[in-house]
Design goal:
By secondary structure, this protein is an all-alpha fold. The protein has five helices and no strands. The chain folds into two domains: 67 residues, no CATH class; 50 residues, Orthogonal Bundle (Arc Repressor Mutant, subunit A), CATH 1.10.10. It is elongated and about 65 Å long.
Length: 119
């Protein structure tokens, strides 16, 4: 079926892609929240109930996998991802090398990646 109004069609597509990106960003912020799972709001008023349940389950899985990490690994990851600290700043805070910070964050990302691959 041909598109009657290509401009309107493109605007519609762009809006839907934008909304999808916003939803994904919201879910990502929830997943990587440094707050306890019980305090994380898993409900997005624009999402479907199935998506809300899936987001909550994913957050729980990732929280569980990060809980198995060395406390410094988890803290370095959260400081970098949420507080915006650089590797140098984290290294100074922990009195370790920037290479050690790189290793901590890499370990956290591997734990998360492994959890996501288990689906």
């Amino acid at each position: 079926m041909p598109v009657r109004d290509p401009v309107a069609f493109l605007v519609d597509v762009v809006e839907k892609v934008h909304i999808d990106r916003l939803r994904r960003a919201t879910i990502t912020r929830r997943i990587f929240s440094d707050r306890p799972l019980e305090e994380v709001d898993c409900v997005d008023t624009a999402s479907l109930p199935e998506q809300d349940a899936e987001a909550c389950q994913l957050i729980a899985r990732i929280e569980k996998s990060l809980a198995t990490a060395n406390p410094r690994t988890r803290e370095a990851f959260l400081l970098h991802r949420f507080d915006g600290l650089s590797y140098v700043e984290i290294a100074a805070r922990f009195s370790i090398s920037t290479r050690a910070v790189t290793n901590h964050i890499a370990k956290a990302l591997i734990l998360i990646d492994n959890e996501l691959l288990r689906e």
